[in-house]
Amino acid sequence: MEQPSISGKVRVRFAPSPTGQVHVGNARTALFNWLFARQQGGTFILRIEDTDLDRSEARYETQLIEDLKWLGLDWDEGPDVGGPYPPYRQSDKWQVYQDYAERLVSEGKAYRCFCTQEELERQREEALQQHLQPNYPGTCRNLAPEEVERRRAAGEPCAIRLKIPERPIRFHDMVRGWVEFSNEVVSDLIIIRSTGVPVYNYVVVIDDAEMKITHVIRGDDHLSNTPKQVALYEALGWEVPEFAHLSTILGPDKERLSKRHGATSLANFRDMGVLPEALMNYMALLGWAPTGGDREIFSPIELVEEFDLTRVTPSSAVFDFEKLYWLNRHYIKVGVPERIAEIAEPFCLRALGIDKPTSDVRTWLAHVTAALASSVNKLDELPERAASIFHFDPAAAIAAPENAEVLNTTSARAVVYIFVAKILAESEPISADRFKSLIKEVQKETKIKGPALFHPIRILLTGAQSGPEFDKLVPLMEEGSRLELPKPILSVKQRVVAFEALQS
RNA sequence: GGCGCUAUCGUCUAGGGGUUAGGACGUGAGAUUCUCAAUCUUAAAACCCGGGUUCGAUUCCCGGUAGCGCUACCA
Burial level of A48, CB count in 10 A (0-12/13-18/19+)? Predict the structure, then answer.
């Protein structure tokens, strides 16, 4: 059997329900839709699936749009931008669902069902006990029209069910090939509840068809429901779209990725200081690889060019935070410094307790970021990396046993003695080069070099035995010390003075 | 229970009837550095099991197993 021809221009949609934050799994679905649309020169549509009114909230919709935009996606039609096939929010079109359902009933393709939920539940359990597929037995399938009218007139509540044809249902999936379901496992499904509220599986079909969706790209949790939807397309006499069911994203324990595993929503990643292009690159690599499979770095534009839906893996994938961080590091390094600084700024401001930074403070933080960001996985680690600059507590430094051990050697005393004298004789600010030559002088005068020389000085200046290079640290300390901050940054000299005060 | 989907290093994957089964993350070792991180070099590491088909299967087919999903008047 041939693959059905794709008629007309590509139109795809991402149809989330606005229930909280955008999960990475959904974000990846959105991304694949977007990539496919952009590369095919098609249309990408955002549609809000809010049939589940209990769980939907308007503010979630706003956040959802914000998060998707943050990732770098844009759409041609949606609740915020409009489009030729409104509405882009399901709650706005209940009447349409009623009308199509009535049409199916009048054409004999659907029927009214008076079975009560208790009855159905009983039948279901019986079938399960006999190890049978718990199908609807078809009780109301062939009721006489007069009886239907009589019972309706009597006020008996009824739902509307679709008649599933007596033949297997098959459809094409771009990532899995042809999928076939025997009709024995698909039974007549309710499309309108007795309350009048339409059911999801029915609503998607109407929406997708009305919006002329050509490719339904979604999570594989919808795969088993697809035959029902195909039956609906056929009953309505509509062309069945092409499908692409994307695999699930799992946590390290192979369970569906969830909050239990840590960060899972776009907002979480943004708040961790993960760059959107890193996340996008990583998500694209989850289930997709270019021919050859030996390239990992793809900018959004490159993804649009290289991405191929038919090459997407059908098997589920474990989300690997380490690999995401590796990509993030890469994008932090190659990113425009001004932009990286801007994204990093809030993390530093929070750590320093600054509400309204002056432009001098912002410039200084940009320098801090430029110097240190390349060694950080995510930008929220920056304050920690800059701890030797941001915080200075000589008393605690001296008290720490591992530091005392270093400081209490004769060579360390000699180094500290000379070093302190030299710094105190300096006029401020001390440049990185000047600092370097001072260390050289200390080395010459004490004949001490290597760790024995640097370690005591590092402890004296930062309170720690490890951290960024002095070349980077010194200018940042000097610049920071000229700023007015809630908790001042100390210059090299001020640090030495504070240290000396404790020694005497 | 039934049905469906899936199965290559720890992880993401490339590949495909005959290959030294390739790349990346991570891990180990080394280099560099005052130190940490970063960086560079390098090593270890995989075709789920059983039957077929075939001269030859990791690759194709069937079965098993396992994981996941669906099985609603949930979405």
Answer: buried
pLDDT tens digit sequence for A397-447: 888 888 888 888 888 888 999 999 998 887 878 889 999 999 999 998 888
Is A4's pLDDT higher than 70? no
Q: Where are the domains of chain A?
A: 1-79+201-335, 336-385, 390-503
Q: Which residue is nearest to nucleotide B26 (CA to C1')?
A: A322
Question: In this predicted model, what pLDDT tens digit does every residue of A199-248 receive, in sequence order?
Answer: 999 999 999 999 999 999 999 999 999 999 999 999 999 999 999 999 99
Alpha helices in A321-431 (DSSP H): 321-334, 337-352, 359-372, 382-385, 387-390, 394-399, 401-407, 410-425
Question: How far in angstroms lies nucleotide B69's C1' from the CA of residue A250?
Answer: 13
Q: Which residue is nearest to nucleotide B6 (CA to C1')?
A: A315
Statement: residue A3 has pLDDT above 70: no
What's the pLDDT at A323?
A: 97
Of the pLDDT bands very low, low, confident and very high (cuts 50, 70, 90), residue A55 is low
Query: What kind of fold does domain A1-79+201-335 have according to CATH?
Result: Rossmann fold (3.40.50)
Catalytic residues of A: 259
Say how far apart CA A383 and CA A487 lie, in whole Å.
Answer: 14
Q: Which CATH code fits A390-503?
A: 1.10.10.350
Nearest nucleotide (CA of A313 to C1'): B13
CATH, range A336-385: 1.10.8.70
A293 CA, B24 C1': separation in Å? 9
Q: DSSP letter string over A13-55?
A: EE----SSS-BHHHHHHHHHHHHHHHHHT-EEEE-B----TTT
